[in-house]
Amino acid sequence: QVQLVESGGGLVQTGGSLRLSCEASGRTFSDYVMGWYRQAPGKERDAVATINWNGGSPYYADSVKGRFTISRDNAKNTVYLQMNSLKAEDTAIYYCNAMGPRGALTMYDYWGQGTQVSVSS
User: Fold this and answer.
1) What are phi and psi of 15, to 5 degrees?
2) Measured distance CA(61)–CA(87) in Å, rounded
3) Which of 9, 58, 67, 97 is the most buried (most CB within 10 A)?
4) How far is Cα 51 from Cα 46, in angstroms, rounded to an integer?
5) pLDDT of residue 51
6) Where are the beta strands (DSSP E) in 8-114?
7) What is the DSSP string of 2-24?
8) Tell me: the pLDDT tens digits for 36-80?
9) What is the pLDDT of residue 56?
């Protein structure tokens, strides 16, 4: 089992910035691809950004490219999402995800409890 705890959400004005953090415990953090997903009211949960085991090959949704940056610190078992130039449409619950473990025949998904990000226009 992997436990994920997100923090850093809140209310910010359009154009502002927030940094989300997700601390993992329970398994070897560096064995998991980490990601951030978000779900707005009435919509499906979509991928925002993902990062592989050693911090390479970051993926970003088109809607956040150039504004959001995902990073990880394997020594701290933490993944981050730096969000700049926030827009009203970024308002959602943001969830941390861990997928792995690396090399296993069966991959598992783990989710945090979510943190609310609200951007006022």
Assistant:
1) 90, -10
2) 15
3) 97
4) 15
5) 97
6) 10-13, 18-25, 33-39, 46-51, 59-60, 68-73, 78-83, 92-100, 108-111
7) -EEEEE--EEEETT--EEEEEEE
8) 999 999 999 999 999 999 888 899 999 999 999 999 999 999 999
9) 82
